[in-house]
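Posting for a labmate who doesn't have an account.
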Amino acid sequence: MRNFKVAYNFTAVLSLFPTENGGRKKPVYDHYRPAFSFSSPNQLTGEITFIGQTELQPGSTANIMVKLIPSRLVSLQLKGGDPFKIMEGNKIVGTGVIQEIKDEHRIMNTPVN
């Protein structure tokens, strides 16, 4: 059996919850690294880069580029239209929808002898 990790790069629309609705108190900036949840109990790490801006205030929406860190827990079925949550610890601070998958990488795990 071959083990491999999968990484995705995709564009998405992200909305941060307003502070008064349990969201963050401060804005997020390029290279923000929250946990992502895609209708699964597993949380994945990814990095957000904003398209056409450098920060996002609580209660606002932006177009983003996401690079998910390679993991064996990543679903092989991510596609445009899939929703996700972004989390800080166990707290959901925003939601998003994948717009377009730009790249999918499968990285083979090599056994250690």
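Reply:
Got it, the structure tokens are right above this. The chain has a mean pLDDT of 87.
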